[in-house]
Specification:
10 helices, 416 residues, 29% strand, Enolase-like, domain 1, FAD/NAD(P)-binding domain
Length: 416
């Protein structure tokens, strides 16, 4: 039975935000009104494993958030392998690539991001890839199977996760990061330095302030990268991990306000109140820092989906969710709660160590005496407790934090 246009909620996108919103709408009894349109020919699936476990074993498959029968039982109509190419706000209709048109009462854009590219590598090259989707991961896995020398452009989370995975498979890995340090958008300088030293100690060739000046191409393959310093790096596989660009073309064509993302308010509404946006494609006023940001994380996607669900079900609540992130890079388990102080901020850094374990510690960042961010390395209990402290606005004294004999859990108010 088709959903009346006066009631339908169309979700555009098949990532974590879309999956979480489907779950919320189903729980609210609105599954039968929901239509999910996924460009990929797959149900929404977990993406973090793509740069790690998925690359290690040929039998690994994308892990869906929920099986197809869950969507059927929830009454959610799923259109996979098709995409929205135009939004008609006046007629409240979307046109699909297949030519179909669907009417909507409320529209949610969860279009995510696309990999940033380099002009010199835009032509199809058989041994060059990025990593955003399952198809990219399948291609990279096949390339790595027959490769020995891997060059990765970009020292962010994705680039370093792939590097650690390839290194563990015995590949010769070189990472070129154009910025002065690794993970510059997501981590503090102190954490970046630790990660750099750890990877180098483990035998990876990681270079900062390093760019590719030219690419040697032969028979549809890149055979070498020439660095800005003139060094020639022969390779079998080239991975481009230089960041992501928000997918805003659809929103911009529809006249929605965009600026490095679709601008949304505290209820996830775009400049058209009947069109919401969630996930990596959005830019919003982050509640804890007051800064307008675009966050690329599973946590942000899930939390924004919950806020959007509240808006769609008529129980709107302003979005306030503590940002947190994680990255697994070989033997490094990085977990961050809150956002590092902006560059130039006069902050105080406190290091909490895990007894005699130099590989396990947490960095507590204070600004004007207020705890704003905690970065943990191989210290999951610190991370979980720190998230609670930050959510509650509790700023324990630095001299207490540095004392490993004091359990962080004991610093959480009893009432909480």
């Amino acid at each position: 039975m088709s959903t009346p246009a006066t009631e339908s909620i169309i979700i555009v996108g098949g990532g974590h935000a879309a999956a979480q919103l489907c779950a919320g709408l189903s729980q609210a009894g609105l599954g039968a009104r929901t239509i999910l349109i996924c460009e990929e020919p797959l149900l929404p699936y977990h993406r973090p494993p793509l740069s790690k476990a998925f690359l290690k074993a040929a039998e690994e498959q994308p892990m869906p958030h929920r099986p197809s029968d869950w969507y059927e039982q929830a009454g959610i109509q799923v259109i996979a392998g098709d995409s929205v190419v135009a939004i008609d706000r006046n007629a409240r209709r979307v046109r699909l690539k297949s030519g179909s048109e669907l009417a909507w009462h409320r529209l949610v854009l969860a279009t995510g991001t696309r990999a940033r590219t380099l002009p010199a590598l835009e032509a199809p090259l058989s041994n060059v890839t990025s990593l955003r989707h399952a198809a990219d991961a399948e291609r990279l896995r096949a390339l790595l199977a027959g490769a020995q020398r891997v060059v990765i452009l970009g020292g962010g989370f994705i680039g370093l996760e792939i590097a650690a995975t390839a290194h563990a498979q015995g590949k010769q890995v070189t990472v070129l990061e154009a910025a002065p340090r690794l993970m510059g958008r997501a981590a503090s300088a102190e954490l970046s330095e630790h990660v750099l030293n750890s990877h180098r100690t483990n035998g990876m060739d990681i270079r900062t302030d390093a760019t590719a000046d030219a690419f040697e191409i032969q028979d549809g393959k890149v055979t070498a990268v020439v660095t800005a310093g003139g060094e020639r790096l022969p390779l079998d596989v080239l991975v481009v991990g230089i960041g992501a660009v928000p997918e805003t073309a659809l929103a911009e064509a529809a006249g929605l306000t965009c600026s490095d993302g679709i601008i949304v308010d505290a209820h996830m509404r775009s400049s058209d109140a009947d069109i919401l946006a969630i996930g990596d494609c959005t830019r919003f006023d982050e509640a804890y820092t007051g800064r307008q940001l675009r966050l690329e994380s599973v946590q942000n996607a899930n939390d924004q989906a919950k806020t959007a669900c509240a808006t769609l079900t008529g129980t709107p609540a302003a979005h306030k969710a503590l940002p947190w992130f994680w990255s697994e890079q070989g033997g490094l388990r990085l977990q961050m709660a809150g956002l590092p102080p902006a560059p130039g901020t006069d902050d105080q850094l406190i290091v909490r160590r895990q007894g005699a374990k130099p590989e396990s510690f947490s960095l507590f960042h204070y600004v004007n005496g207020v705890l704003v961010c905690v970065e943990s390395v191989n210290a999951p209990l610190d991370h979980v407790t720190s998230r609670k402290l930050l959510e509650l606005g509790v700023s324990p004294a630095p001299e207490t934090v540095v004392d490993a004999s004091v359990a962080l859990k004991s610093l959480i108010p009893v009432a909480a």
